[in-house]
Amino acid sequence: MTQSIVVQVGQCGNQVGCRFWDLALREHASVNKKGIYDEALGSFFRNVDTRYSDGDCMDLPKGKIRSLKARAVLIDMEEGVVNELLQGPLRDVFDSKQLITDVSGSGNNWAVGYKSYGFQYREQILENLRRAAEHCDCLQCFFLIHSMGGGTGSGLGTYVLNLMEDEFPDVYRFVTSVYPSAEDDVITSPYNSILAMRELTEHADCVLPIENQSLVDIVNKINQMTNSGKLGAAIKPYTLISGQKEAKGQEKPFDAMNNIVANLLLNLTSSARFEGSLNMDLNEISMNLVPFPQLHYLVPSLTPLYTLADVNIPTRRLDQMFSDAFSKDHQLMHADPKRNLYLACALMVRGNVQISDLRRNIERLKPTLQFVSWNQEGWKTSLCSVPPVGHTHSLLALANNTCVKSTFQDLKDRFVKLYKKKAHLHHYLHVDGMEQSCFTEAITSLSSLIEEYNRLDATKGLPVSDATRLSIAM
Amino acid sequence: MSVVVVQLGQCGNQVGRELFEVVDSDARGQGAKADGERYREASLDRFFSCEESGGNVPTARAVLVDMESKVIGRTLSSAAKTGRWKYGDKNYFCQKKGSGNNWANGFYIHGPKCEDAVMNLVRQEVEKCDRLSGFITTMSLAGGTGSGLGTYVTGCLRDTYPNSFILNHVIWPHRTGEVIVQNYNSVLTLSHLYQSSDGLLIHENDTIHKICSQLLNIKQISFTDVNKVIAHQLGSILQPVCTGLCLTEYSRSPLGDLMETLVTHPEYKLLSAMSIPQMSDTSLAFSTFTWLGLMKHLRQMLISNTKMEEGIDWQVRPTPAGLPVAAKISPNKELRFNTSVSNLLILRGKEVQNAETGGFNDQALYTSWTPAESALSVWQASQTFNKYERSATMVSNSQSVLKPLDSVVRKAWNMFASRAYVHQYTKYGIAEEDFLDSFTTMEQVVASYSNL
Ligand SMILES: Nc1nc2c(ncn2[C@@H]2O[C@H](COP(=O)(O)OP(=O)(O)OP(=O)(O)O)[C@@H](O)[C@H]2O)c(=O)[nH]1
Ligand SMILES: Nc1nc2c(ncn2[C@@H]2O[C@H](COP(=O)(O)OP(=O)(O)OP(=O)(O)O)[C@@H](O)[C@H]2O)c(=O)[nH]1
Ligand SMILES: [Mg+2]
Ligand SMILES: [Mg+2]
C-alpha cells in the first residue's frame, strides 16, 4: 500500500490539520481493535520506537503499535497555533523535527509568505519533505492544507507546492484550500487568494475548494437543529460533526468547521486505505475527474451532515443520502452545480452499500444533472466497506463542474475593486522579488481559467451529437 | 498439451481464480471409471502441474500480475484455502501502486519495468510444461493494469514465443459507472491486441450481470457471482474435448484447434461465447433437457444475438441461402440478424452423439465467403460438465461484438474530439498520433464486421 504526507501551512492549515489527525486516530482506533500496525494505518502514520532515541527514530515493521507519528510537515510563520498544538493531546504524534516556525507571521501578505519566507526557508522545508518522504516505501500523495486569505498559508503554502512539484514530480499534489468569505476580516484576502490561485491552477493535481461561508452555514444549521431539539437527543459524541468534547477541552470557534474539512479528507482517502469491493486509489481520482490539466477544481459535498446515525438506514434513507449529496446545503462551497455543467463526477461511498445501490441512484439522479457532451457517462464510483466512526455509511461526492466559475468571478471582482484603488499594493511591492507583473499575471491566469469554464458551459443544453467518425478506406 | 494462464490486474486475477476453480471442480466431479479418469488427467495436465515438493496439491499453471498488492494477496490465499489446488508460492509479481486506470501508465511505465520479472515467471511456468499449447491472458479493458500492462505483456509473449498461441480473454466494462476513461483504455487495448493476439475472447460485464439476475436469480450481485458465470463458459470451452468423430481422443492442442477453427482471417479476431443451459443449482435439480431443445434455443440465440436463454427474439430468421447477396442485406437483416464468420459448437454430456447440429450448418448463417461446411465446427465430450447433464457452448466469431464495439469507439472518439483526458495519457509517453492509429485500427475492425 502507498503512503501520503500531509503538509499543513499557516493558522488555518494547522488547525484543520489538527482536527484531521485527531479524527484519523479515532477512525483507525475504531477499526483496528487489535492494536497492530497495519498497512491502512501506515498510509498516514509511522510506527516508531521512541525508547532508545529521542531523535529521528527508526520505523518499525509490522507488529504491535508502539508510538504513532503523523506523516506530516507543519509550517507556520508564527508560533502560536503550532505551540498550542504541541501542548494539546496530539503532541505525541508530532516531533520537533517535523515543525517549521518563525515568530512574526506573514501579516496577511502573500508576498511575504511566498517571496520572503519561501526564499528563507526553502532548504529547511525541502529537508523536511525529504525526510518525511524517506520514511515512506511508496509515497503517492501530498495533501496540502491551507487558507487562501492569509499570508502564510496562501503564500508560503503555494511556494511549498512548487517545491513539491520540482522535487517530487511523480507524487500527486492534492490541495485543500479554504476560501475567504465575502465578509472576511482580512482586507487583503482577495489579493492573497488570487495570487495563490495562479499557483494552484498551474501546479496542483487536484484542488478541493472550500468556502468558509459554507462551513459556517452548515455549523449554524446544525446548532439550530440541536437547540430546537430537532435532532432528538442531540448529536452523539464522536460522530461526523462533533468535536473532541473532552472534559477539559473547550471547543475553539473553528473546530466544528474544521471537523467537516477533516472528514472530507478522511473520506477522500478511505477507499485507498481500507478494503472494499470497488477500490479507488488516489491516482484514479485525478485520472478520472480531470479532463484538462487546469480544470482540476473539485467541489466536494458530504453526507450525512445533519442526521443521527444510530439506526440501520433503510433504502429510502440511503437514497436520500445520494439526493443530499446533490443539494446545496451539503456542499462545502456555495455554487450551483445543477444549473451548470458537469465535466465529471465521483461518488465515494463508505459502509454497507452495494454496487446495485450505486447504479440505482446514478440512474435516478442522472436526469437532473447536465453532463458535458463528451462525458455523458462521466461517473466514477468507489465502495469502501469501512464506514466512518459513528455512522453506518457516508457519501462524498466530488463534482468537476463549471459552477466554480461564479465563485472565482466573485473573487476576481473583489480583487479588481481593491486593485483599482491600488489599495495596500505598496505592502506587496516592498517585498523583495515581488513585482506588479505578479498581480497582472495572476489575474490573467484566473481570467483564462474562468474563460475555459465559460467556454464549456456554453455547450450546455446544446443537442448532443456525435463527432464525425474517422472514415476508413475499404 | 498445457496452457499457461497470465492473470493481469484486479479483474484478471479475480476471473482467473474462478477459472481454475471451475476446471478443478469439474475434473474432480467426474466418475471413477476409466473414461472419467482420462478426462481428469487431460484436464489436470492442461491446467495444473504437480510437484512432489508441493505436497501433491495441483499447482495452477498461472502467473499472477498486478501493480498493487491487495488483490493478489487475496487471490493467493483464497486458492490455498481450498486445499484442492493452489497457485505457486512465487508465481506472482506485484508492486505497490496501481496504474490508476491509465492505459499509458500500464503500457509505457509498468510494462518495461516489469518485463524481465514477468517473463521470467512465464518462462519457469513454460519449462514445467511437457508440451505448450499456448497462453491465455485474463484482463479487463477498463482499468490501467490489465489493459495497459496486459497489452504490453501480450506483445512480449508474442516476441518470445512466436510459435505459441495467445488467447486474450478480455472483460468488457459495464456501460457506465466505474471508470470514466474506460472507452479510451478499451480502444487502446483492443487495437494493440489486434496486432499481437491470435484471438480475443470477450465477455461483457453487462451481459453476465443480466444472466446473474435473470437466469440465476441472484438479488445482490457481486463480482464473484459474475466471475463464476464467466468461468463456467470459459471452462466449457477449455476443458478436454474431442474435436473429431472419435469420442475417446481428446484434442491435443486446445488453443491451436480453437484458433484454427474460429480465426480464419486476420481481420476477424473477436470471439464471443454463449452457454446453455445456465441456471441456479436449485432449479437445475428439477430440470431435464433434450439435445433437441437445447440446439433449437442455442441456434436462435446465435442468430438473434441474444447471449442468454431469456428474451430470445424468435422473429429473427435467416434469409434463405441461394438468394443473391443484395437481397440478403435487407435493412431488416442488418438490424437484427447476426451473421457469422465461423462458429464453434461445444457439446458436453450424456448421449452427446445424438445431438442434431444440422441447424448450424446453414449457409444463411454465414457470410458469403465462408462455406458453411468449413465455418462450423462441432466438438464433443461425453462427460457432464460442471454438474450440467447436458450443456452446450457456442463460441462465435460474428457480428455479435459489433454493437458494444461501435459504442465504445464512438464514445472514445467523442471524447478525443475535445482532447479531453488526453493529457493524462501523453504525460506517460503516448502521442496523439498513437491514439489516432488505434482509432483507425478499430474503425477498420468495425467496418469489417459491419460488412459481413
Ligand atoms: N475554516 C477555517 N478557516 C480559518 C481558520 N483559521 C483561519 N481561517 C481563515 O483563514 C484566513 C486567514 O488565514 P490564516 O490561515 O489565519 O493566515 P496564515 O496562513 O496563518 O497567514 P498569516 O497569519 O498572514 O501569517 C481567513 O479567511 C480566516 O477566516 C480555521 O481554523 N478554519
Ligand atoms: N467481471 C469482472 N469484472 C471486473 C472484476 N473486477 C473489476 N472488473 C472490471 O474491470 C474494470 C476495472 O479494471 P480493473 O481490473 O479493476 O483494473 P486493473 O487492471 O487492476 O488496473 P488499475 O487498477 O487501473 O491499475 C471495470 O470494468 C470492472 O467492471 C471482476 O472481478 N470481474
Ligand atoms: Mg497566521
Ligand atoms: Mg487495480
From TrEMBL, chain A:
InterPro entries: Epsilon_tubulin (IPR004057), Tub_FtsZ_C (IPR008280), Tubulin (IPR000217), Tubulin/FtsZ_2-layer-sand-dom (IPR018316), Tubulin/FtsZ_GTPase_sf (IPR036525), Tubulin_C (IPR023123), Tubulin_CS (IPR017975), Tubulin_FtsZ_GTPase (IPR003008). It comes from the Eukaryota. PROSITE patterns: TUBULIN (PS00227). It holds the Pfam family Tubulin_C. It is found in: Cytoplasm, Cytoskeleton. It comes from Callorhinchus milii (Ghost shark). This is Tubulin epsilon 1. The gene is tube1. The keyword Transmembrane does not apply. CDD domains: epsilon_tubulin. Keywords: Cytoplasm, Cytoskeleton, GTP-binding, Microtubule, Nucleotide-binding. GO terms for biological process: microtubule-based process. Residues 278-413 form the Tubulin/FtsZ 2-layer sandwich domain. Belongs to the tubulin family.
UniProtKB/TrEMBL annotation, chain B:
Residues 44-245 form the Tubulin/FtsZ GTPase domain. SUPFAM superfamilies: Tubulin C-terminal domain-like (SSF55307), Tubulin nucleotide-binding domain-like (SSF52490). GO terms for molecular function: GTP binding; structural constituent of cytoskeleton. It is found in: Cell projection, Cilium; Cytoplasm, Cytoskeleton, Microtubule organizing center, Centrosome, Centriole; Nucleus. Belongs to the tubulin family. Keywords: Cell projection, Cilium biogenesis/degradation, Cytoplasm, Cytoskeleton, GTP-binding, Microtubule, Nucleotide-binding, Nucleus. The keyword Disulfide bond does not apply. It comes from the Eukaryota. One of its GO terms (biological process) is microtubule-based process. This is Tubulin delta chain. Acts as a positive regulator of hedgehog signaling and regulates ciliary function. Its main location: other. The gene is tubd1. GO terms for cellular component: centriole; cilium; cytoplasm; microtubule; nucleus. It comes from Callorhinchus milii (Ghost shark).
